Amino acid sequence: MNEDKINTKINFGSETFKKYFANTSWMFAEKIFKSLVAFFVGIYVARYLGPGQFGLLNYAISFAGLFTSFANLGMDSIVVRELVKSPEKSDEILGTVFRLRVIGSLVTISLVSITAFLTKEPTFNLLLIVIISSATVFQSFAIVEQFFQSKVQAKYNVIAQSSSFFIASILKILLVIFNQPLIYFAVVQSLEMVFLAVGYYFVYTKNGFSFSQWKFTKHLAKSLLKDSWPLVLSGVVIAIYMKIDQVMIKYFMSVKDVGYYAAAVKLCEAWYFVPMAVSTSVFPAIVNAKKTNEKLYLNRLQKLYDFLAAIAIAIAIPVTLLSDFIINLLFGPVYQPAATVLTIYIWAGVATFLGVASSQYLISENLTKLAFYRTLIGMIVNVIMNLILIPKYGINGAAIVTLVSYSLATFSIGFTKKTANQFKMMLKSILFVNIIKEVLKNGVNIKTKD
Fold it and tell me: Could you give the CA distance from residue 337 to residue 181 in angstroms, rounded to a whole number?
C-alpha cells in the first residue's frame, strides 16, 4: 500500500467516527457535569471554610497526594493498551492488576501515615491526612474504568463516577448547611472513593461480568510491572511537582496562603478534564492507527495536539484579562490575593493539555522511560525554584514555578532525536500552523470558485 495515498481526513459518516464521537460525548457530558458541580460546590465550601480552614483541607489533600499516585502503579493506559490488544485475556489482566493495586494502596497508606508522623504534623493535621489517604484502597476498583475504556463504552464509567460524585457533593452541601466542622469534609473526601467503588461494582456486574472470574497471574504481573515501573516513578514525580507547592507554601508561609493559592489552582485545574477526556477516549484509535499506517498515526496525533492547544489558549486569554473580577465574584474579597496567582497559573494549562496528549504518544511507542525522565526534569526544577521563589515572592512565586516547570517537562520531549518530531508537532499546534494553513487554503478555494 502506498502511504502517500492514505486518506487522513476524518470521515464523519463512518461507523468508527460515530463510535468514538459517542464515547467522547459521554465522557465530556460527565466531565462537564462534574466540573460544573465541583465548581459551585467548591466555591460554596471555600466561602464557608474561609482561607484558613480551606487551606488546611487542601494542605492535607496535597500531603496525601504526594504518595497516593503510587497506588495505581502507573498502569491505567497500559491496562487499556493490553485489553485492546488481548481482549480474550481480560479476566486475567483485570484480576492481576486489581490485586497489585490493592497491595500498592496498603503500602501507600502506610507511607503517608508514617511520613506525617515523622514530620511531626499536629494531631489534627495528621488525622485529616490519614482519613483522606485511606480512600486509596478503594481506587483499586478503578480497573473497571480501564476495562470499559478499552471497549469504548464510557457511559458505564460515567454512571459510576457521576453517581458517586453527586452523592459526595450533596453531603458537602449538607455539611455547610448544618455548620459542620472541617473533619467531616475530610471524611466525605474519602467516602467519595467508597461510593465510586460501589458504582464500578454495580455497572460491571450489571453488564454480565463477574469479579469472581478474575484471576491473578504471576507471570503477567511481572510483565506489567516491568512496563509500568517508569510510569509508577513518573506518577510519584508528577504528584510531587503538582502537590509540593501547597505543602511548601504552608511550610514557608501559612495555611491561609495555601487557601488563596488553592482557590486559584482549583479554577485552573477545573479545565484539566478536557485533555484527559479527549486523550483517553481517542487512545484506542491512536493505538489502532499505528497498526495500520504511520502517516495516519502521526496525523491523528497532530490533530489531537492542534485541538487541545487551541482550547487551552482560548481558556487562558479571557481568564488572564478577568482574573480580579473572577476571584471577587466567585470567592469574595477575602480571597483577592488569589487573583494574581490565577493570571499566571492559567497559562500552565497549555503545557498540561499538550503534556497529556504527548503522554499517549510515549505510551503507544512504549517509551515509558522517557515519560519518567521528562517528568523528573519538571519535578527537580519545580522543587528547586519553589525553594527560591516562595520565600521571596510568596504564592505568586509558586505560580511562576508551576508555569515554568510544567512547560519544561512537556517540551523536554524534544531533547532526544527519537521524539524531536513531537516537539515540532506541539510547537505547530501552539503557533496554529495547521489552522492557519486550513484558513488560507479555504480562502484560496473560495476565491477560485468566485
Answer: 25
Chain Cα centroid distance, residue 143 = 16
Nearest residue to 241 (alpha-carbon basis) of 115, 384, 345: 384
| Residue type for position 397 | G
Neighbours of 122 (CB within 10 A): 10
| Chain-centre distance for alpha carbon 12 | 28
From CA 108, how far away is CA 70, in angstroms rounded?
A: 7
C-alpha to C-alpha distance for 62 and 242, rounded to whole angstroms: 8
CA-based R_g, the chain, Å? 22
- Residue 335 buriedness (CB in 10 A; 0-12 / 13-18 / 19+): buried
Q: Residue 387: how many CB atoms within 10 A of its CB?
A: 12
**How many C-beta atoms lie closer than 10 Å to residue 65's C-beta?**
21
- Angle of CA points 226, 232, 236, to nearest 5°: 160
Cβ-count burial of 120 within 10 angstroms (0-12 exposed, 13-18 middle, 19+ buried)?
exposed
Segment holding 132, helix H or strand E: helix 123-133
d(CA 251, CA 243): 13
pLDDT tens profile 97-112? 999 999 999 999 999 9
Crossing angle for the helix pair 420-430 and 368-411, to the nearest 10 degrees? 40
Kindly compute the dihedral angle of the four CA atoms of residues 28, 356, 165, 37, in this order, to the nearest 10 degrees. -60
pTM of the model: 0.82
Biggest alpha carbon distance in the chain? 76
Q: What does the pLDDT look like over 373-402, one tens digit per residue?
A: 888 898 999 999 999 999 999 999 999 999
Residue 294 contacts residue 4 (beta carbons within 8 Å):
no
353: cell is 493539555
